[in-house]
Backbone:
């Protein structure tokens, strides 16, 4: 069974059909990319999957379970994490704390127990800290742990956001333009990172404009144009697809 | 002014000051997670005092205080769940008006339950006339209970917000709500927790201050104004600054008695509030540019 199955998904904003009748599925362990010109509905698609927007029609299944219409925090706890095109970190918190926040859905300390500082809460706290540090080490930013997250360079902030998403131990990771604003060296680094994320058994669905990155790392590509899916295939086939070339280069 | 008199005023100042600080921190906790001022904050303090006084005949003092704090927390949770939680994207103004309504509602309910009489808890140690000698000045032992309890609450809160998962989630919710939701944090629960926490610390402050200040059904309003002044004075949302600002206001009030008639004491807080709002609306310790960022 596919990990993520999107079927006939549609979203209407007033008279604008931002996404219409989009269907595709993502198999477990795969890296799948969604590409398309600006305004094709890629970010809207992500917002529909993560519950930030409610679909006008269609359904989203995660591992066979219908998650359509659930609230975003519930969908996150079902196992979908995401990063943003414009990075959203928690200002005033350190890098480590930011990543620890991602960890909490895998921990169990309740409100009353936390208030009373019960011993097992402190032990749990220690485990959360350890898990967060491991993620930072994996991304090679462990030495930044105690710095304020929003004071870092752009590329580093992106790594922190990725570490936070990984700390959630998701089944599916949605990356919204992970290479946006990065130079070619940093982009290559992001490519390596995404491949190593796959090694952890995490399925990746990404939106990206950098074609060399997309063609390099993806197993399959979905192409959107004006909210509709116009192609879905392996990278080589997409590169020679007439309709895709038409959409990108004009008639 | 003699040294004894100075110390006398000073202790009176920090006693009231630490209570103002706790009320202000209550404001800040809710402000940080919701962006609103909960004007029913003073009522939590009143309820803490009143409930513990009512429970005292049937149970020992520490138990009565614990029960009063727990019941007030429950009341805080109920207020949030019944009147705020179900609102879909409520405007700030709408929520503020709701809390003003809740404040009036609570006060009137308290009037019916406890009538207009002024009550108080007994002194925790000794009685009204027992004193501790500090450099020649006579200070009631209850003063140390108040300062100690408020100090402990501040320490407890800072550990809670820095060092526990739930505390960190509440800060995350304050810092970036959207990102918090997508990290799987139920922000509505965090708002409920913030009401519970504010109610709890308010109620405990209400218990320890009751022997000194007495408790009546309409105590809350005055405290809410002082607490609000302190929260603004320190810079909304900043609890360390609220402690400093609370002590400052308490000490200013206490020493003002030596130059102004006692009746002017409350006017001082209001005057300070107005001056701050005109001159430094982001507070004494807040920076203007950072005023847009909310952080505990």
Residues:
């Amino acid at each position: 069974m596919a990990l993520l199955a999107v079927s006939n998904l549609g979203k209407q904003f007033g008279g604008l059909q931002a996404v219409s009748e989009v269907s595709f599925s993502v198999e477990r362990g795969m890296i799948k990319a969604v590409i398309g010109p600006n305004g094709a509905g890629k970010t809207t698609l992500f917002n529909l999957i993560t519950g930030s927007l409610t679909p006008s029609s269609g359904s989203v299944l995660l591992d066979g379970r219908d998650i359509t219409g659930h609230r975003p925090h519930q969908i996150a706890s079902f196992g979908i994490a995401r990063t943003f095109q414009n990075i959203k970190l928690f200002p005033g918190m350190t890098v480590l704390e930011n990543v620890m926040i991602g960890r909490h859905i895998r921990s169990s300390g309740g409100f009353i127990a936390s208030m009373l500082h019960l011993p097992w809460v402190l032990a749990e706290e220690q485990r959360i800290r350890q898990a967060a540090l491991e993620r930072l080490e994996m991304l090679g930013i462990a030495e930044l742990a105690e710095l304020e997250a929003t004071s870092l360079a752009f590329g580093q902030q992106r790594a922190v956001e990725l570490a936070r998403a990984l700390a959630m131990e998701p089944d599916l990771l949605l990356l919204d333009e992970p290479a946006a604003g990065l130079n070619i060296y940093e982009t290559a680094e992001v490519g390596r990172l995404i491949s190593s994320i796959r090694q952890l058994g995490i399925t990746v669905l990404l939106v990206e404009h950098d074609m060399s990155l997309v063609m390099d790392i993806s197993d399959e590509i979905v192409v959107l144009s004006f909210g509709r899916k116009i192609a879905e295939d392996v990278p080589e086939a997409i590169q020679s697809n007439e309709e895709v070339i038409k959409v990108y280069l004009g008639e | 002014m003699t040294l004894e008199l100075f110390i006398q005023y000073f202790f009176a100042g920090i006693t009231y000051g630490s209570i103002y600080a706790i009320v202000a921190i209550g404001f800040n906790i809710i402000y940080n997670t919701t962006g609103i001022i909960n004007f029913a904050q003073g009522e939590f303090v009143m309820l803490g005092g009143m409930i513990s006084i009512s429970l005292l005949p049937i149970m020992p003092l520490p138990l009565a205080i614990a029960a009063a704090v727990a019941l007030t927390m429950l009341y805080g949770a109920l207020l949030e769940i019944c009147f705020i939680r179900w609102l879909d994207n409520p405007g700030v103004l709408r929520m503020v008006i709701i809390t003003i309504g809740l404040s009036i509602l609570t006060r009137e309910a308290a009037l019916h339950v406890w009538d207009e009489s002024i009550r108080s808890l007994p002194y925790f140690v000794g009685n009204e006339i027992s004193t501790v000698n500090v450099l020649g000045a006579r200070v009631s032992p209850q003063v140390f209970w108040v300062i100690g309890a408020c100090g402990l609450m501040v320490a407890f809160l800072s550990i809670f917000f820095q060092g526990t998962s739930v505390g960190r989630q509440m800060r995350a919710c304050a810092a970036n709500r959207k990102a918090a939701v997508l990290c799987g944090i139920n922000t509505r629960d965090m708002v409920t927790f913030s009401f519970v926490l504010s109610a709890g610390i308010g109620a405990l402050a209400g218990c320890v201050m009751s022997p000194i200040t007495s408790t009546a059904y309409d105590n809350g309003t005055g405290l809410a104004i002082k607490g609000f002044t302190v929260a603004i004075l320190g810079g909304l949302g900043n609890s360390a600054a609220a402690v400093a600002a609370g002590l400052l206001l308490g000490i200013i009030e206490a020493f003002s008695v030596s130059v102004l008639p006692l009746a002017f004491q409350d006017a001082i807080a209001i005057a300070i509030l107005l001056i701050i709002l005109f001159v430094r609306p982001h507070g004494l310790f807040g920076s203007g540019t950072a005023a847009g960022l909310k952080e505990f």
